[in-house]
Amino acid sequence: MTVEGQVGGQGGTLVRVIGAVVFIVALFMAGMGITNSAPRVWFIPTVGPYPSEIIRPLFLACSIFIVLATKGFTLWFREHRPALAWLGFAIDAALIAAAFWTFWRYYVDVSEIESGLFDFTLIHPVTALIGCFCFIVICWKAWGAPLAICGIVALVYLFTGEYWPWIFETAPIVFLETSEDLWFNLNDGVLGTIMGILIFTVFPFVLLGTMLEQTGGGRSLIKIAFHLTRRFRGGPAHAAIVASALFGTMSGGAVTNVVATGVITIPMIKRRGFSPAFAGGVEATASSAGQIMPPIMGAAALVMADFTGISYLTIIVAALIPALAYYSSLIASVIFEARRLGVEAAPEVDDDELAVDRQDYINMIMIIVPVAVVVVSLLKGFSPAGAGMLAMYTVIVLSFLNPEIRANPFRIIMALARGAETHASLLMAIGVVGIIVAVLGATGLPNDFAQVVGQATGTQLFITLIIAALAALMLSMGMPTLPAYLTIVLILGPSMQSLGLAMLTAHLFVFYYGVASSITPPVAVAAYAAASISGAPPLTTAVYAMRIGLVKFMVPFIFAYYPVLLLVPEGGADFELTAFLSILARLLVIIYLVSSAVIAFDCRRLPVWEIVVRLALPVGMLYVDPVVHWPVTALALAYLVWHGVRFRRQPALQPQAETP
């Protein structure tokens, strides 16, 4: 729900403008224009950097104010229990007061505590618990129950770990010292390293994404994607894939991507002759994968870079081939579905609103130039945050190429305000992740878990990957992708790396499955958002999305066993052209087999035995021993040739009832 929908009239606008102003001031105080090896750029108006002890509480105080003003208890009571609106206001006021007090205590005490010249008193663990309580409550209100419950369980485990069985048993804790583990810590605490990454690195890219969305570039991108794909059978479905990939890499949110692009693409896909469930499934699957598409990757690459110490450029290069492989599978699935339904190309756009004009090509400058600025700035030695700031300022200047912005420049402020709102909500989720991280660090559970997994699986990497994949899917359901990724990789990362998986490969593996959770039933949030637009049953749409996106579940296993696909040494293997071409060629055949199998159509409707064959052959083709995978590949090619020759003259089918 948008802020306008939650805070009516001038009050809602005022809250958003206040949020934008406060966040931008805090951004400049953080010194975002500072670079790693390049000099500070004169036109980036930073007045910092101020110490982290000031910036982190400041950002979080602003975030809590904005989240409670736009999604707080006052609004809920006003809508559902008007007579008790005063109670909602009292709860919001109490949360704000408690949070501000805990942040003030953090600012006052953390420097002395970090120096080691400090004695803890009862006030410090009380402060930590109140701060954690505020994050859990506000996160529950903003994101729902799953992540908040994980935070509660983590706190309970910290204080009762000595009574838990098996590997979960911990040494008795000292109550006073928990304050440093949870709160007064610049490294592993709630306001520690991960929160610092979100504040100092990710924020400029959140603003960049909302600016591109709100200043006209996003809609022009969709229109041009329709124009470029109008001669393909899938037409609007292909346009949805292209637009969602490019838009999603900047927006970083699956549901946001679905809502922004789906309102245009889904009705067009249905109009072309595809079923509502398929239309929603395509949009949900394409939108969810925007976060794995370089160069921005929805800011995930930034978090991964800071978290692992691997350069941002290395991560986006490593993610390129897997992302392209996945989107190729989506395009192939649409082609097979169009064949199944007998959908033909319709070169003329049947919607005047989607007709491309000169202004749309001008607006594309707002998409292309900022992305180029990010890449060039990184190559020149700028930090990711500095590159993001340069790109954001570039978008602000270029937005005046749009006559709608020239007529109403206030839209820029509103776009920045929307970015502030998005970032504020994300910080609430990261605050709860900080609780989990602090507890894991204090108890040493990840190392114990790694030893148990190692003993249970021995040297079986495949079993460990299965465990990691299932855990990522389950714990990511209903959670934002970044918090889910961080939580899982902290727990399972050591186990994966202990079996020889490189750090970058392990992190990408977990992140891919965190992204895939948005289309995995029963909590397929992206698919449910698409279903609300398409009018199809939500669960049917989710099943379609998972079928169409099946390759997304395979790709992480492929680059885990064939790290040469990641193109960089940090992936675990030096680049060898022969090995790369070998797996790339097999991957293309696998995409063809799997994409046709999930649609159950190629040159004809596929019987069950052919579907089974097309899903079984990739298993042998991915086996690492050439003695196995080359004969299976030859068999797969021979089978496809036989199918094409035998059934190529069969007419296309008429539209049929959807069979999820």
Mind explaining what this structure looks like?
This protein is mainly alpha-helical. It has two domains: about 190 residues, no CATH class; about 350 residues, no CATH class. The protein is about 70% helix and about 0% strand. It contains 30 helices and no strands. Helix 15 runs parallel beside helix 28. The longest helix has about 35 residues. The radius of gyration is 25 Å and the shape is globular. The relative contact order is 0.11.
Topology:
Layout: H1 3-6, H2 9-29, H3 52-71, H4 73-80, H5 85-115, H6 123-143, H7 145-160, H8 178-182, H9 193-214, H10 217-228, H11 236-251, H12 254-272, H13 276-288, H14 300-308, H15 312-341, H16 358-363, H17 365-379, H18 384-398, H19 403-407, H20 410-443, H21 445-457, H22 461-476, H23 481-498, H24 503-516, H25 525-534, H26 538-548, H27 550-561, H28 577-599, H29 608-621, H30 626-647
What characteristics describe this protein?
disordered N terminus, 660 residues, mainly alpha, 2 domains, 30 helices, globular, disordered C terminus
